[in-house]
Structure formats: structure tokens, C-alpha cells
Amino acid sequence: MSLLVSEIPAPVLRARLYEALEIYVAAMHYPRGVEHSRAPMWAEHMLRDGWRAVAAFEIPDSGPRATTAMDDVATAIDDATAIPDGARLVGIAYGYHGAPAYWWDRQVRSAVRDTAGPPGTRLMSDYFELTEIHVAPSAQGKGIGAALLTRLLSGLTESRVLLSTPEVPEERNRAWQLYRRMGFEDVLRHFRFLGDRRDFAVLGRTLPLP
Ligand SMILES: CC(C)(COP(=O)(O)OP(=O)(O)OC[C@H]1O[C@@H](n2cnc3c(N)ncnc32)[C@H](O)[C@@H]1OP(=O)(O)O)[C@@H](O)C(=O)NCCC(=O)NCCS
Question: What fold is seen in the domain 2-206?
Fold first, then answer.
């Protein structure tokens, strides 16, 4: 099995939206059916400024283009025909340029202002919001998450990336391990988004990556 990690344009994600949402639902342990409510949200996100997505595909070694695809990981898939035959989507990550027009931004900006005062919101003046990153449970722990994140953040023009992730005791899950390993630092801890009873952390790091 080979792995292809590539930026994908919106039409490619649109074509494989339910495959990507199945990964999301399985990775987050959400009940089946959640994908139907998320599909329109993900579709709307694709229209936002600075939207960028990266996908990971497992390619059977017998696939006719497997070797070429693996050797050519720097090449973006620019349409669905560029996806090698038999490729299975195993990971997806995307985000967009954060802006006060968006719900997530307004929630976070107001909490940052409350905790750090108006100067604290400077870190939200030019940022990429990492909205989703998920790897199929059967493919986790093999470096795919790290590859997705590195690819997604490489070449961004924003000066910072911000994300939110559920709090877990002692930061003991793969998402936290990955974010800490990639240099993400605390922006907010034990933060509650309106309408969600879970505690979240907002983490961030400057860009570009080293
Ligand atoms: C978070 C998530 C995207 C990370 O993806 P991943 O592919 O599992 O992450 P990685 O493999 O890059 O890193 C995870 C582990 O694999 C290890 N690893 C990294 N590269 C590796 C490699 N080449 N070979 C073997 N193991 C490797 C890492 O050390 C890490 O182990 P650790 O967790 O004990 O530190 C994925 O686990 C996931 O979808 N989780 C559930 C959904 C979720 O939490 N999403 C984020 C919500 S904010």
C-alpha cells in the first residue's frame, strides 16, 4: 500500500464529500447521520476566502499509477481524474482565511478579548483557521495526520494558524500529540462555544512552519 498526500481543489472534495464525512464521523465517534447535517456546512466552507484542503489516499501497490503518484507527492491533484485508480480516501484536512464574518471567529475573538484584552486579538488579525483534520481510524498512528497538517500549512500566506480541539485529560489523544509536536501553543483553554457543552482549547502557532 502506498500513500498519496495532496492538495485537492473544491470540486474533488465535493465529488467525494460523503467519503470524507464518513471519515470525520468515524474519527470523531459521532453517531451515523451527522454527515447529513455537516455536508452543507462543509460545502459552504469551500466558498470561503483562502479555503484550502489536503487529502490522503491509500493506493493499492498493484495500482497502475501507484509508484508515480507516491514519487510525485508534491504535485497537487487538480481534478478527479488525477486520483489514481483504486485510491481510498483515508484522511482529510481543510481550513480557510479566518474573518470576523464567521461564527467561529466571533466566538473566539470575543473570548480572547475578554482574557487578554484588545491587544490579544492582534493574533487574529491574519490567520488561517484549521477547520477539520481527520484520519480514518484504521489508518491512524502512521504519520498521515502529520503529513496532512504539514502539507496544508505549507505555503500559506497567513502569519498564524488557529484551531479548536476538545479538551481531553492530560492532552492524551492523537490530536493533542500532533498539535503539540507541531508547535501549537495555548490561546484559550476550557473554552465553551455557544450551544456546545464540551470544553475546547483554542491553539495556535505562527507561520510559516520551520
Ligand atoms: C488527530 C488525527 C488527525 C491525527 O492523525 P494520525 O494520522 O493519527 O496522526 P499521526 O500518525 O501523524 O500521529 C499520531 C501518532 O502516530 C505516531 N507517528 C507519527 N508518524 C509516524 C510514522 N511515520 N510511523 C508510525 N507512527 C507515527 C506519532 O508519534 C503519534 O503517536 P502518538 O499519538 O503516540 O504521539 C487522527 O488521529 C484523528 O483523526 N483523530 C480523531 C479525530 C480528531 O481528533 N480530529 C481532530 C479534531 S480537532
Answer: Aminopeptidase (3.40.630)
Ligand 1 binding pocket mutation candidate from 30, 140, 202 (most atoms within 8 A of CB)? 140
Q: Give the count of beta carbons closer than 10 Å to the beta carbon of residue 19.
A: 16
Nearest in space to 49 (alpha carbons), one of 116, 101, 119, 120: 101
Nearest CA to ligand 1 atom 8: 140
Angle at 81 between CA 76 and CA 131, to 5 degrees: 50
Separation of CA 135 and ligand 1 centre (Å): 8
Mean pLDDT of 24-32: 96
179 is catalytic: yes
Q: In which order are the strands placed within the sheet that holds 160-166?
A: 2-8, 52-59, 88-97, 127-135, 160-166, 200-206, 185-191
Residue with cell 498564524: 160
This prediction has a pTM of 0.91
**pLDDT tens string 144-163:** 999 999 999 998 999 999 99
Of 72 and 126, more confident:
126
Domain range summary for the chain, segments of one domain joined by +: 2-206
For the stretch 80-127, pLDDT in tens is: 777 888 899 999 999 999 999 999 999 999 999 999 888 888 999 999
